[in-house]
Amino acid sequence: MTYILVLEQILNGLQLGMMLFLMAAGLTLVFGVMGLINLAHGSLYMVGAFAAAAVAGWTGSFLLALIASLAAAAAAGALMELVVIRRLYRRDHLDQVLATFALILIFSEGTRWLFGSFPLFLDVPSYLSGPVSLPGGIQYPLYRLTIILIGLAIAAGLFLLIARTRIGIQIRAGEADREMIAALGVDISKLYTLVFALGAALAGLAGALVGAIQSVQVGMGEPVLILAFVVIVIGGIGSIKGALAGALLVGMTDTLGGVFLPQLFAVFMDPASAASAGASLASMLIYILMAAILLVRPSGLYGGSA
Amino acid sequence: MADVVLKTDRLNKCFGALKASSDVSLDLRSGEIHALIGPNGAGKSTLIKQIAGNLVPDSGTVELLGQDVTALDTVARARMGLGRTFQISALAMEYTVLQNAVLGALGGRGRVFHFFRNVMKDPELLEQARDALERVGLTQDANRRTADLSHGQRRQLEVAVALTLKPKLFLMDEPMAGLGTAGSKALTGFLDGLRQEAPILLVEHDMDAVFALADRISVLVYGQIIATGTADEIRANAEVRRAYLGEEDAA
Amino acid sequence: MMLTRESLLNWAMIAALLVVPLAAWSLDEPFIITLATKAAILALAGVGLNIALGLGGLISLGHAAFFGIGGYAMGILAAHAQNYEPLFEWPFLFEGSNQMPLIWLVAVVFSALAALVIGALSLRTSGVYFIMITLAFGQMLYYFAISWSAYGGEDGLSIWVRNEFPGLNTLDPIQFFAIAYVILCLALVFAARLARSPFGLALAAARQNEDRVQAVGLTPFVLRLTAFVISGAITGLAGALFADLNRFVSPTMLSWHTSGEIMIFVILGGVGRLYGPVAGAALYILLEHLLGGISDYWQIFLGVLLLLIVLFARGGLIGALAGREKAHG
């Protein structure tokens, strides 16, 4: 019983980690290539979720909804890059923070204006609902398992993209030396728009996938954004590998801490205060993890010397 | 023999396959100007950083005033009396020239945790700052914004800020760079007198200045010191001519 | 002393912030007094942030942590006092307090302590890491407050009666305004002196050129940490006043939107300008009041305005009215 519970929670942690990876990958790419901190990345997550909910509402197709989330977030991302973000590359971080914070206000209130304040719902399609039996006698929701698999597939795809393709080479060159890549004749502004839209699409997909488990509402992207920041800080800014490691670490810590800390506290406390103290500590656990990693490695697990 | 104020002992530093410092041993004695020359990429900057404390050597030691400071950071070495000027001007660009000099004097005094008194009305700091500015010839420019100075004036200000610290030795990284002929001549004359106050380890590209000023010259090539000696000895050194001066002539 | 355009503008602003509520008082318009009080308190929070941000160049996106800690200091002390439940009984019996001076002291001490810990960890890094880490620590306290059911959890804590200040009737809006206004003025004087002090000179130099500060034998980390603690303490004091104004504290005060808003006050007015937060907070309250009356979605306009200021008018309001900043003299 307990070992099944543990395995189940590990899978939940893996699922959260995969979602965080989709968010963090875009953030870390954008920072690595363009040197930009984008607070509005959470808005793209929200755009993806709303697009998916709307399309699912019209067509009833979950697959179309996912495609819509990718397309809408990529389009919103490209638009954001063309209109605002590209004016910020040469600015300092303060301007980037403020301008992208302003974008959050615009996106959040704009979405509220379009869709209202009530949450929308995106249903898990019937062919993905229900539990599935895993080896070892675990019953696990098929949908969550699908999320894990999609996350893994995208992680593999990203590694291939960066290691093997022309765009990947350009991205890596851009990280190393922005002047050089321009000198090589790569159209740098097109590359930047592309990278930004790619990151946006991943965030939008994450929003849609999570939207089917939770509700789709304004502001849903921000808690995830901040978790993704913690992921990047832990993993090291600019590193996809670091984003993956950080995402898994944060996903596991958050999930397992939330479940097992109250139980652990119950060993030496009365149940009520154990539940409350355990929940309080669990809510802070990933930040404590982040602080601990910072003490040892100020630039993250896979960060350079910056 | 005069006192040794700075000594490096077999410093080694690698960046991957590149050996930027290879068994570098040199010393600086009181009253002298010791020039460090070498072609671009010879490892001068790497060596300077190890001496100033920005970079930890892979092996070897740095001694300042007879004390092993290899493990100390830049701040601690500055407090011990290492006055430094940078190759690329490191100044507070929004400040006036005088404010930069006062910052130096404040650092020299060390007591920075005063929150209420007006630092620009502190007579002691102002006097030190104005003295230093006068010595490098920047009195006229005291109230100008540092960002508005010419490159040459910024180099002068670098030297002035180092002076406010009343250092026991100077570490100067290309103070002549960007100065015109006249400016370079004036600074040469100034440094000539300064060596009596505190010895100078001078990294410099301006060969006229180096040969006019230096009591001793060390030549760094590919991270190694290939020769140390007086100006005449260095001129006569066959290896130096081949490895370094020859290249310069050809260029 | 020569009055520059900027200092004239500063005097005009601080006078306006006094005249408007006085006029409202004589016209019996308590709502406007409350708006002015809110502006003064938010300006105080901005003055705190500006010491880290403007002077020290530390882009903290976690100042809501200190604002909220100040708020909770008020909430917790006053809640215990109103319910007659001892806060602790050892080493002496303490039943909370409804006295503002004591509440402020507790707010300042605890927000300073939090700033010391958060700053010591965050300042090991710089640049984007610093932004993300301050944001994350702020969020940590936010989630902690939500899960802290003893003090209201997500719902927050309400206080029935505003806390007391010796000799004043704090329930009278104009008297409470006077308290906030005087504290704001004191903080402005403090910030002005700090900027010109030896510490201020070294701190702002560390923002401009870290190598230079080290080369003159000063440690940027220590300067920045000190600034961060002072900054957090002032923002914490503002938090205690803000909670007292609303007689309510909730995790919202700790949320990162609050951090963003405090930063907006500083930016709307002009970064690094001493009176920037005053102009920014006043403008913010004005916009909230005017645009909020037109549309429920007024923050869209705020967002657009902020975007335009960042992209095209970097000096903020004071910059637009008073011209380029002079070198500090």
Task: Sum this structure up briefly.
The complex is a heterotrimer of chains A (306), B (251) and C (329). With 306 residues, chain A is mainly alpha-helical.
Set out the fold topology.
The complex is a heterotrimer of chains A (306), B (251) and C (329).
Chain A: H1 2-34, H2 41-59, H3 62-83, H4 93-115, E1 131-134, E2 138-141, H5 142-164, H6 166-176, H7 178-183, H8 188-211, H9 221-235, H10 240-266, H11 271-296
Antiparallel strand pairs in A: 1-2
Chain B: E1 4-15, E2 18-29, E3 33-37, H1 44-52, E4 59-64, E5 67-68, H2 74-80, E6 82-85, H3 97-109, H4 123-136, H5 151-164, E7 169-173, H6 181-194, E8 200-203, H7 207-213, E9 216-221, E10 224-229, H8 231-236, H9 238-250
Helix pairs in contact in B: 3-4, 3-5, 4-5
Chain C: H1 5-26, H2 30-55, H3 64-83, H4 100-122, H5 127-147, E1 157-158, H6 173-196, H7 198-208, H8 210-215, H9 220-246, E2 248-249, H10 256-269, H11 276-294, H12 298-312, H13 316-322
Strands side by side in the biggest sheet of chain C = 1-2
Order of neighbouring strands in the sheet with most strands of chain A: 1-2
* H/I helix tally of chain C: 13
Give the structural class of chain C.
mainly alpha
Average pLDDT number of chain A: 89
Instruction: State the distance separating the first and last CA atoms of chain C.
Output: 12 Å
Based on CA atoms alone, the radius of gyration of chain C comes out at 20 Å
Q: Can you walk me through this structure?
A:
- The complex is a heterotrimer of chains A (306), B (251) and C (329).
- Chain A has one domain.
- In chain A, 75% of the residues lie in helices and 3% in strands.
- Chain A starts with a helix and ends in a 10-residue tail after the last helix.
- Chain A contains eleven helices and two strands, in the order ααααββααααααα.
- The mean pLDDT of chain A is 89.
- Chain A has 306 residues and is mostly helical.
- The longest helix of chain A is centred in the first third of the chain and has 33 residues, at 2-34.
- By secondary structure, chain B is of the alpha/beta class.
- Chain B has helices at residues 44-52, 74-80, 97-109, 123-136, 151-164, 181-194, 207-213, 231-236, 238-250, and strands spanning 4-15, 18-29, 33-37, 59-64, 67-68, 82-85, 169-173, 200-203, 216-221, 224-229.
- Chain B has a six-stranded mixed sheet, with helices on both faces.
- In chain B, β9 and β10 form a beta hairpin.
- Chain B starts with a strand and ends with a helix.
- With 329 residues, chain C is mostly helical.
- Chain C has a domain at 48-254.
- Chain C has 13 helices and two strands; from the N terminus they run αααααβααααβαααα.
- Chain C is globular, with a radius of gyration of 20 Å.
- Chains in contact: A-C, B-C.
- The A-C interface holds A 31, 37, 84, 87, 93-95, 97-99, 101-106, 108-110, 112-113, 222, 226, 229-230, 232-233, 237, 276, 279-280, 282-284, 287-288, 290-291, 294-295, 298-300, 306 and C 53, 59, 61, 121, 124-125, 127-129, 131-133, 135-137, 139-140, 143-144, 146-150, 256, 260, 263-264, 267, 271, 297-300, 302-304, 306-307, 310-311, 314.
